[in-house]
Write a structure and sequence with these properties.
The protein is mainly alpha-helical and about 160 residues long. The chain has helices at about 10-20, 25-40, 50-55, 60-75, 75-80, 95-105, 120-125, 135-145. Helix 1 (about 10-20) packs across helix 2. The longest helix is centred in the middle third of the chain and has 14 residues, at about 60-75.
């Protein structure tokens, strides 16, 4: 007797079928979609046995059980994607943080440094308590968006002309 029974709604079933048919998908998402589709009890209790699903997909029975358990306890999106909706990230850099970052990158670098680096900027943003944490890659993308490159020195190079004629 299965402890966690998967009962999909019509919309969930359609999404899973579309996931397995169209486009490129992460292997884990495809695996989870196949497990959920084959475990579905909504179709008159026709869900396959865990051993059959595991054999068909080349995975362990315990993996099938864990995916079903995640579906029942944590919900559809978590069971399918491995976490709640992966496209809903918390945005750390809003307009205020971006303005502080741009102002900081245009200021004088710390003592002992000739110019700002991405890591120096990210560390200083945390030190000044503008954000809890920010990666140097996020700093890079914000500066790129604003067309700033504080790690480069601007200057002119004037080469002498060869006036021998």
């Amino acid at each position: 007797m299965k402890k966690y029974k998967v009962t999909l709604t019509v919309a969930e079933r359609e999404l899973l079928e579309e996931t397995t048919r169209k486009g490129r998908r992460n292997a884990m998402v495809l695996r989870n979609a196949y497990v959920l589709l084959n475990s579905d009890q909504a179709q008159g209790g026709r869900g396959l046995m865990d051993v059959d699903i595991a054999g068909f997909l080349g995975i362990t029975v315990r993996t099938v059980e864990k995916i079903r358990e995640k579906f029942v306890i944590e919900g559809f999106e978590t069971a399918l994607y491995g976490r709640a909706n992966p496209w809903k990230y918390k945005i750390k850099v809003d307009g205020d943080v971006e303005a502080h970052l741009v102002a900081l990158s245009c200021s004088e670098p710390p003592n002992g440094y000739a110019r700002w680096s991405l890591r120096l900027l990210s560390d200083k943003m945390v030190e000044l308590d503008y954000v809890d944490g920010i990666s140097h890659e996020t700093v890079r993308s914000v500066l790129k968006k604003n067309e700033l490159k504080p790690w480069r020195e601007k200057g002119w190079l004037i080469s002498p002309r060869n006036n021998s004629a």
